[in-house]
């Protein structure tokens, strides 16, 4: 069954207060709810009282009472997905008792157990697995939660402030929490366990003191410091940049090993995937440190963009997610290197979101329909949604954007609203017109910009002609032109940007609004080289016929570091596509000299930020190359990429060696931007050095691994040895590494992922063996993502083995996973949904694997939606 945005109707009833009591037990948790219900004055119904719908899934109903009187069976009907209740008054107290079995809950939605700890995940529709309730975000209620548990669960947490605690007559513990802020059920949370915590304080801008607590299993208590620091930075940043102050007396974070996503912003009680919060220098890589900082910030920022102002319905998901991703990206940019953060985000967007936009599940930032909302927590809603907010920021400027966000928060505090409300606030605060811009919310697909230019020496006029076009996507054809902000500069022969007007401005945002539009620049004294879409000012594919020389010039001179990097990427893309063609034609592959020259210059440029140098030296990934357009030819992509990588490694070996040695100095680990930058360049050099296969180079990696002073360097050295060293030695290093780290869940996840994603070592046989390893757990999403996801999503070479064995394997795992955890099954199947893009034989094999999934029996709604849409003609 499909749900449509156009069918939205306001709720018939509201719930002003929600009082919950949990009596915890693994197989028989008793949940009592007491709801103060009243007719919604704004419901567009008649004056007769309609039936009350309560969502409920996998619940055992024990009793229902209205105003203290038990309801006879004829007053309600149990239906699939919930309960329909006859109502005879416009306000009443509804009491419901249900029984649930957290131990049997492997979907990790609702209330479940993770390593003996009770925890919840309610977004989007998990609360209905806890009790019968109008489980929709436009029903906002003040929650009071009482938890009763045996004495071996000393920590009992829920949203808001603790208002009571004690011991029952039979020696059990009981705690009551009250959250004064009305919230939808998806923000409810409960945690119970034998946990320890670290504590800190934050004094807000108005002088209120907030207690900060981070809870983990005792063994992880030493891994909390970085997240705590990140939290304090986030709180300060949101005050300074958005004027947003925290609103409760306490803010808690809990780390949980079994979690479907990264983390969850439950009011006052954020719950995190352990991998996204726990870190120590010995066990976490730089990438993990930065991911943690970003996710802690993201969840914290939701307190305003998501909780204080929430979504009216799930079609509006990007209202909170797109905005909050934009907020966390800007935070990370302020804390670290802005250019590198932008490059990383754009790489994800171009690799995975563009693919989604061009695939069978393509949808607008605000979808029009869905079968299962969990399938719409996508790169489009999150990352493209953030790009859409970024474009508003670009169009209105920083001050205008801040005026808009101030108005948005003030006007809608305590409400459940829509993307439209957000745009209107932005318009109203600035007297701006975003009418055409709104199409970004409703049109799917990645727009393509074709740019041409002419220069007239006589008149000193330079003209840019920009055409836009958005390809059709499932259910959407003939798209209208968008309002696209295109930031540009014009570079002169000397490499510096030419003034665009008498004020001396050198960078300008062009507002592209028509299908074809011309921009004229006067007083341009020489033919310029355009630097287009600076900072990636819009989520589009931009085409301009740059020559090799022009790209080399931009790599050297562009003052926008993003475009400097992007010029190198374009050069590599072009070289790699010619090589793919040559491979297909059976002609001999020739090294692209100009690319190597460009990289050589970058490598020797010691004035550039080393992190930027590392990014510029990295070739586009195989996955990114599939986004070039045209049929995907996996063997050709692999052959071309390996050829260039090996060529670069051999040709530039002395330079790589020199920079590696210079950067390979011993100093205490610190995850600061500058140290991270140096390690990233050092390890990029190490990887190229090992790619030569030289004994001596592999020995450098062995020495680095043996030094063992931080996980970034150890994991990079191990990865290089696994990928480029002899298999028997790689195995020995892996075994030793495992023996050293087997007690540490996060390191074991890294260890799994490093093997399954290795294009040389991570064969299907080895991946199957990893699944038999004692540390592998099919019920744990992190392990599944590391081993199965690492193979299917990050190991292009082995997954696309010509015999199709990779596809068949993934189909088999998806079928098994769907029985336990539908959300994870529906995600990990993604590579199979892209079958249409591949060359004939691969395409048939992938499609066949997908059909095996379809025909395997009854599928969850999550998996059914993805599979059926991917096979639809
Ligand atoms: N709101 C969470 C976040 O982005 C993600 C929760 C996703 N849950 C889900 N079932 N898809 O921070
Ligand atoms: Zn979020």
UniProtKB/TrEMBL annotation:
Residue ranges annotated as coiled coil are none
Against InterPro entries, the record matches this protein to:
Aminopeptidase_N-like_N, Aminopeptidase_N-like_N_sf, PepN_Ig-like_sf, Peptidase_M1, Peptidase_M1_dom, Peptidase_M1_pepN, Peptidase_M1_pepN_C, Peptidase_M1_pepN_C_sf
Peptidase M1 alanyl aminopeptidase C-terminal domain boundaries: 549-872
Q: Per the database record, which ranges form the Aminopeptidase N-like N-terminal domain?
A: 105-187
TM ranges: none
Domain of life, source organism: Bacteria
Any single GO molecular-function term of the entry would be: aminopeptidase activity
Q: Which PANTHER family match?
A: PUROMYCIN-SENSITIVE AMINOPEPTIDASE
Cofactor (UniProt): Zn(2+)
Q: Does the keyword Magnesium apply?
A: no
Provide the Peptidase M1 membrane alanine aminopeptidase domain boundaries.
227-440
Q: Hey, which family's this protein in? A: Belongs to the peptidase M1 family.
Which reaction is catalysed here? Release of an N-terminal amino acid, Xaa-|-Yaa- from a peptide, amide or arylamide. Xaa is preferably Ala, but may be most amino acids including Pro (slow action). When a terminal hydrophobic residue is followed by a prolyl residue, the two may be released as an intact Xaa-Pro dipeptide
Residue stretches making up the Peptidase M1 alanyl aminopeptidase Ig-like fold domain: 445-544
Report the top EC class in one word: hydrolase
Protein name, UniProt field: Aminopeptidase N
Q: What is its EC number?
A: 3.4.11.2
Arranged from A to Z, the UniProt key words for this protein are: Aminopeptidase, Hydrolase, Metal-binding, Metalloprotease, Protease, Zinc
């Amino acid at each position: 069954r499909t749900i449509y945005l156009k069918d939205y109707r306001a709720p018939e009833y509201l719930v002003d207060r929600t009082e919950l009591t949990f009596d915890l037990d693994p197989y028989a948790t008793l949940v009592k709810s007491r709801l103060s219900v009243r007719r919604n004055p704004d419901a567009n119904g008649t004056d007769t009282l309609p039936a009350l719908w309560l969502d409920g899934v996998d619940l055992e109903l024990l009793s229902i009472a209205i105003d203290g009187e038990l309801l006879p069976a004829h007053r309600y009907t149990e239906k699939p997905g919930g309960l329909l209740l006859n109502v005879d008054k416009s306000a009443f107290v509804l009491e419901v008792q249900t029984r649930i079995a957290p131990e049997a809950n492997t979907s990790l939605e609702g209330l479940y157990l993770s390593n003996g700890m009770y925890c919840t995940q309610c977004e989007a529709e998990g609360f209905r697995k806890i009790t019968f309730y109008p489980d929709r975000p436009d029903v906002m209620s003040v929650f009071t939660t009482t938890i009763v548990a045996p004495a071996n669960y000393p920590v009992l947490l829920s949203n808001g402030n603790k208002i009571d605690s004690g011991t029952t007559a039979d020696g059990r513990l009981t705690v009551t929490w009250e959250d004064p802020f009305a919230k939808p059920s998806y923000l409810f949370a409960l945690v119970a366990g034998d946990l320890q915590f670290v504590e800190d304080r934050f004094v807000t801008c108005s002088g209120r003191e907030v207690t900060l607590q981070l809870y983990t299993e005792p063994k992880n208590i030493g891994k909390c410091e970085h997240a705590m620091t990140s939290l304090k930075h986030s709180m300060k940043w949101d005050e300074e940049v958005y004027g947003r102050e925290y609103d409760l007396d306490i803010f808690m974070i809990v780390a949980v090993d079994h979690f479907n996503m990264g983390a969850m912003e439950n009011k006052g009680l954020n719950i995190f995937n352990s991998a996204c919060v726990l870190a120590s220098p010995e066990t976490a890589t730089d990438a993990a440190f930065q991911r943690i900082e970003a996710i802690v910030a993201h969840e914290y920022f939701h307190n305003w963009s998501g909780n204080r102002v929430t979504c009216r319905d799930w079609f509006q998901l990007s209202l909170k997610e797109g905005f909050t991703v934009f907020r966390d990206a800007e935070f990370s940019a302020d804390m670290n290197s802005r250019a590198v953060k932008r490059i990383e985000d754009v790489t994800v967007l171009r690799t995975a979101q563009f693919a989604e936009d061009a695939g069978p599940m393509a949808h607008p930032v605000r979808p029009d329909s869905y079968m299962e909302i969990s399938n719409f927590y996508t790169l489009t809603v999150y990352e493209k949604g953030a790009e859409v907010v970024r474009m508003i920021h670009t169009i209105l400027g920083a001050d205008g954007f801040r005026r808009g966000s101030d108005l948005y928060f003030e006007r809608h505090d305590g409400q459940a609203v829509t993307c439209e409300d957000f745009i209107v606030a932005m318009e109203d605060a600035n007297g701006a017109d975003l009418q055409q811009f709104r199409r970004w919310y409703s049109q799917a697909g990645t727009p393509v910009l074709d740019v041409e230019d002419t220069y007239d020496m006589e008149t000193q006029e330079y003209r840019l002609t920009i055409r836009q076009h958005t390809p059709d996507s499932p259910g959407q054809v003939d798209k209208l032109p968008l309002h696209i902000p295109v930031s540009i500069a014009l570079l002169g022969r000397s490499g510096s940007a030419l003034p665009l007007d008498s004020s001396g401005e050198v960078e300008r945002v062009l507002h592209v609004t028509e299908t074809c539009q011309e921009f004229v620049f006067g007083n341009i004294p020489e033919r310029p080289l355009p630097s287009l879409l600076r900072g990636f000012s819009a989520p589009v594919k931009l085409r301009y016929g740059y020559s090799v020389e022009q790209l080399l010039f931009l790599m050297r001179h562009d003052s926008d570091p993003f475009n400097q990097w992007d010029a190198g990427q374009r050069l590599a893309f072009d070289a790699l596509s010619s090589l793919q063609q040559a491979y297909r034609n059976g002609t001999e592959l020739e090294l692209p000299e100009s690319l190597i020259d460009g990289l050589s210059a970058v490598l020797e440029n010691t004035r550039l930020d080393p992190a930027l140098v590392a990014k510029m030296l990295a070739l586009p990934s195989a996955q990114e190359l599939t986004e070039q357009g045209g049929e995907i030819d996996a063997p050709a992509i692999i052959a071309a990429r390996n050829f260039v990588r090996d060529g670069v490694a051999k040709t530039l070996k002395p330079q790589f060696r020199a920079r590696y040695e210079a950067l390979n100095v011993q100093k205490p680990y610190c995850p600061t931007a500058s140290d991270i930058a140096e390690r990233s360049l050092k390890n990029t050099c190490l990887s190229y050095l090992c790619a030569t296969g030289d004994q001596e180079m592999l020995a450098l990696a062995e020495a680095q691994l043996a030094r063992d002073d931080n996980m970034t360097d150890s994991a990079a050295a191990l990865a290089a040895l696994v990928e480029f060293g002899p298999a028997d030695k790689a195995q020995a290093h892996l075994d030793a590494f495992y023996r050293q780290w087997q007690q540490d869940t996060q390191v074991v996840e890294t260890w799994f992922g490093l093997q399954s994603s290795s294009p040389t070592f991570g064969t299907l046989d080895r991946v199957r063996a990893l699944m038999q390893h004692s540390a592998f757990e099919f019920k744990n999403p992190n392990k599944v993502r590391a081993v199965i996801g690492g193979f299917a999503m990050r190991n292009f070479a082995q997954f696309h083995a010509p015999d199709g064995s990779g596809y068949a394997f993934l189909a088999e795992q998806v079928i098994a996973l769907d029985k336990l955890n539908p959300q994870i099954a529906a995600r990990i199947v993604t590579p199979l949904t892209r079958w249409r893009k591949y060359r004939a034989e691969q395409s048939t094999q992938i499609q066949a694997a997908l059909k095996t999934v379809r025909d395997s029996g009854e599928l969850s709604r999550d998996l059914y939606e993805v599979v059926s849409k991917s096979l639809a003609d």
